Amino acid sequence: MIKRVILIVLDSVGIGELPDAALYGDEGSNTVGNISKAVGGLKLPNMQKIGFGNIDGIKGIDYEKNPSGCYGRCTEISKGKDTTTGHWEIAGLPLYDAFPTYPSGFPDEVVKKLEEAFGTKIIGNKPASGTVIIQELGDEHVKTGYPIVYTSADSVLQIAAHEEVIPLERLYELCRIARKIMTGKHAVGRIIARPFIGGNGKYTRTSNRRDFSLKPNKKTMLNYIMESGLDVCAVGKIEDIYAGCGITDAVHTKNNLEGIEKTIEYINKDNKGLIFTNLVDFDMLYGHRNDVKGYANALREFDAKLPQIISSMKDTDMLIITADHGCDPTTPSTDHSREYIPVLLYGKELKKNINIGTRKTYSDIGKTITDILNVKEDINGVSFAKDILL
Fold this sequence. Notes:
The protein is an alpha/beta fold. Helix content is about 35%, strand content about 20%. Strand 9 (about 230-235), helix 8 (about 240) and strand 10 form a beta-alpha-beta unit. The mean pLDDT is about 95.
């Protein structure tokens, strides 16, 4: 009997364009497949042993004759392709009305409210790459002290500030203020703090990013698991993504390796229920910066750590490895991409070499988790627990 699920989201590790990718300008996107092609083949032996290369439609990953786990892929039914949308759908809460986006920057009414509440002017106010805009406006920000406010193709309001000009706690406070302002028709999915350091036109973002998400408008699998008396341990930005809702314990991390370490620490503790991890470096450091080699190396690093995760697991644990969207670094765009996400499942209580096929929604993951943990809930999705359990 499975008593605990370890759910690891490899942020942005998509495996091929969805049928509606053209509506999002993402034709041809295939994060894993295109990276593999660009680097002359991507070897991920430990994920391949579970069945990564056996997933329907996957490209660039070796096929395994006798995989040790179960495998498949999920389709996104929500409107959007961002972190919040993907994670909420995984947890059984798809979004049929997309969060607002601002391809021309924020309207005057929003800018006015922000400046009044901040007590200062803002600069920027346009869609931009975060690493580019701090080079463009960093000197002006340092000179004036005005925060840099910008957005992207996603439903986000981002605030960039030099850590020596606007201290971290003040930056986080500005984000909380913006979160209160961005409601109603302007209820963006996330407010993101983007601190940086440096000088004289050469600036570097730090790992002190924080996300301030909307609260889910309905219970997710996290709430139901917590309310059943089980643990929900969050690693990385999971606590931020769900605005703390349905989480019993949380730890924030600075990079993928620390996220893996903290996940293993939770596995080694006496808890039951859900360990939920987001590994953000794939997306933040490599996908958005179109760094193909960096992305490939990050995938290899995770794969090399996978045996350590598996060896820490108890016989009553189940591991799920998945993603939340794509972010293909081989395309001209630096934005997220509308893609299928992989699903890899492993555990002593699971069958081997079971193809769960192409699921109609990410929510099938959450539905399966609650089913396996015997948690009563009212979330979207169809469980595939009977297909994979011994």
